[in-house]
C-alpha cells in the first residue's frame, strides 16, 4: 500500500506539495497505444489477461504523468463470477443477455466466486509492482448501477424496468442489491489485499433516482458497504453522475472521498458536504474535446474556487471522451501541478 503520495495525502487531508490529478477512463480509446492493442484483442480479452491489464493500467501514468493509476477493467467483470452472461459492445456498453426482471431471476444469480476472476487480482498485483510509488485505485460498480445493467439488459435513459422492480417488487429489488453489495465488499477487499491503495465505487447512474428513492432504497446499502470496507483503512471514493440532489446523502454513507460531476460548482459541493470529506472533480469532460484553451479555461475556474482546499483532488466530472487529443490531457496535468505549486496561472 502506497501512503506517502500526494493523491493519498490529499484524500486524508494531510499536507502535500501540489494538487493531485488523475482522470476517470484515463486508459481507453483516446490513447493510440490502447487502440493499437484493441486492434488485436477484444475489450473483454484485454480485461482477462493480467499482463495486458498491467500494461494498460500503467500506461496513463507513463504517458500523462497522473498521480494515480486506476485498475483497467470494467464494472461488469465481477458479474461473470455470479453467473451473468454479457458482452461489451463498442459505442453501446454492456449488454446482458438474460435481463433480471423479477424474484425468480434474482435467485438465479449465484453467490460471488472470487476465484473465477483471479485474473483481476493478479492484474492488481502486477500493476502495483510496476507502478512502484504511484498508488493504484481499485474499483467496483455500485449495486444500483450494476443492477440497472442487469435489469435493463443494457444502457437505458429511463431505467424503466429497474424502477419498476423498485416500486412493484421491492423484495426482489432489495435481494438483488444485497447480493451485489456482498460481491462489492469481497471484490474490493481482495483488490486491497492484492495491493490497491484506494478504492472507488462507481454509481454512475444513481442520479436517475429521486432523492427520496435514493435515501430509502440505496443509501442504507451503501452505508453497509462502506462500513465493511472501513477496516481496510484506505481512501474510499464514491462517484456518481447527475447527483446534485443526492450529494449530502452520498456524503453520509461512510465514503471518505466524493466524486462530483461537472454540473455543480465544486465550491458548492464543498458547502453541501462540509470540511471533513475529500472532494474529487469536476471538469466537464467535453472541454477536452474542444481543445487546450477550453480545457484550461474550465480548469482555471475550478482551481480558483478550490485553492487552499487541502482535501481536493482534480479529476473530470466523468470519463475521458474517446475523441480527446492526448496532448490536451498531458498539458492539463502539467498545468494543474504548476498551478497547485504556485497558485494563479501556474506558468
Ligand atoms: O477509468 C479507467 O480508466 C479504468 C477503466 C474502466 C473502464 N470501465 C474501462 C472501459 C472503468 C473504471 C470502467 C467502469 C465502467 N464501465 C463504468 C463506470 C464508470 C463510468 O464511466 O460511468 C460504466 C458505466 C461502465 C460500462 C461501460 N463499459 C461503458 C458505458 C462502456 C463504453 C462503451 C463504448 O464503447 O463507448 C464500457 C466499455 C469500456 N470500459 C471501455 C473501456 C476502456 C471501452 C472499451 C473498448 O471498446 O475498448
From TrEMBL:
The record marks 74 as: Transition state stabilizer. Substrate binds at residues 25-29, 74, 149, 204, 318. One of its GO terms (molecular function) is uroporphyrinogen decarboxylase activity. PROSITE patterns: UROD_1, UROD_2. It is found in: Cytoplasm. The keyword Lipoprotein does not apply. Its main location: cytoplasm. InterPro entries: UROD/MetE-like_sf, Uroporphyrinogen_deCO2ase_HemE, Uroporphyrinogen_deCOase. GO terms for cellular component: cytosol. It is an enzyme of class 4 (lyase). The keyword Cell membrane does not apply. It comes from the Bacteria. Pathway: Porphyrin-containing compound metabolism; protoporphyrin-IX biosynthesis; coproporphyrinogen-III from 5-aminolevulinate: step 4/4. GO terms for biological process: protoporphyrinogen IX biosynthetic process. CDD domains: URO-D. Keywords: Cytoplasm, Decarboxylase, Lyase, Porphyrin biosynthesis. Its EC number is 4.1.1.37. It catalyses: uroporphyrinogen III + 4 H(+) = coproporphyrinogen III + 4 CO2. It holds the Pfam family URO-D. Residues 20-29, 137-153 form the Uroporphyrinogen decarboxylase (URO-D) domain. Belongs to the uroporphyrinogen decarboxylase family. Homodimer. Catalyzes the decarboxylation of four acetate groups of uroporphyrinogen-III to yield coproporphyrinogen-III. HAMAP family: URO_D. This is Uroporphyrinogen decarboxylase.
Amino acid at each position: 500500500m502506497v501512503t506517502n503520495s500526494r493523491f493519498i495525502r490529499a484524500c486524508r487531508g494531510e499536507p502535500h506539495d501540489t494538487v493531485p490529478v488523475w482522470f476517470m477512463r484515463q486508459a481507453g480509446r483516446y490513447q493510440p497505444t490502447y487502440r493499437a492493442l484493441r486492434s488485436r484483442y477484444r475489450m473483454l480479452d484485454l480485461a482477462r489477461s493480467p499482463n495486458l491489464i498491467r500494461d494498460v493500467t500503467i500506461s496513463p501514468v507513463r504517458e500523462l504523468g497522473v498521480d494515480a493509476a486506476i485498475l483497467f477493467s470494467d464494472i461488469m467483470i465481477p458479474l461473470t463470477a455470479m453467473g451473468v452472461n454479457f458482452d461489451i459492445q463498442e459505442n453501446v456498453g454492456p449488454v446482458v443477455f438474460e435481463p433480471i426482471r423479477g424474484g425468480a431471476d434474482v435467485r438465479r444469480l449465484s453467490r460471488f466466486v472470487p476465484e473465477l476472476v483471479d485474473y483481476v487480482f493478479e492484474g492488481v498485483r502486477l500493476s502495483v509492482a510496476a507502478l512502484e510509488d504511484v498508488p493504484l485505485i481499485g474499483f467496483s460498480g455500485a449495486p444500483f448501477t450494476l443492477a440497472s445493467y442487469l435489469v435493463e439488459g443494457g444502457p437505458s435513459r429511463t431505467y424503466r424496468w429497474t424502477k419498476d422492480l423498485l416500486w412493484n417488487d421491492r423484495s426482489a429489488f432489495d435481494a438483488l442489491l444485497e447480493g451485489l453489495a456482498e460481491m462489492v465488499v469481497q471484490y474490493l477487499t481482495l483488490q486491497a489485499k492484492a495491493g490497491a491503495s484506494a478504492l472507488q465505487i462507481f454509481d454512475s447512474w444513481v442520479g436517475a433516482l429521486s432523492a427520496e428513492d435514493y435515501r430509502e432504497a440505496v443509501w442504507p446499502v451503501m452505508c453497509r458497504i462502506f462500513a465493511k470496507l472501513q477496516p481496510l483503512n484506505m481512501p474510499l471514493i464514491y462517484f456518481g453522475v447527475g447527483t446534485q440532489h443526492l450529494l449530502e446523502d452520498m456524503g453520509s454513507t461512510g465514503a471518505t472521498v466524493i466524486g462530483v460531476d461537472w454540473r455543480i460548482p465544486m465550491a458548492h459541493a464543498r458547502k453541501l458536504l462540509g470540511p471533513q470529506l475529500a472532494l474529487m472533480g469536476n471538469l466537464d469532460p467535453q472541454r477536452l474535446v474542444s481543445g487546450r484553451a477550453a480545457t484550461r479555461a474550465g480548469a482555471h475556474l475550478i482551481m480558483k474556487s478550490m485553492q487552499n482546499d487541502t482535501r481536493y483532488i482534480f479529476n473530470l466530472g466523468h470519463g475521458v471522451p474517446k475523441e480527446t487529443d492526448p496532448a490536451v490531457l498531458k498539458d492539463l496535468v502539467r498545468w494543474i501541478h504548476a498551478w497547485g505549486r504556485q497558485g494563479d496561472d501556474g506558468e
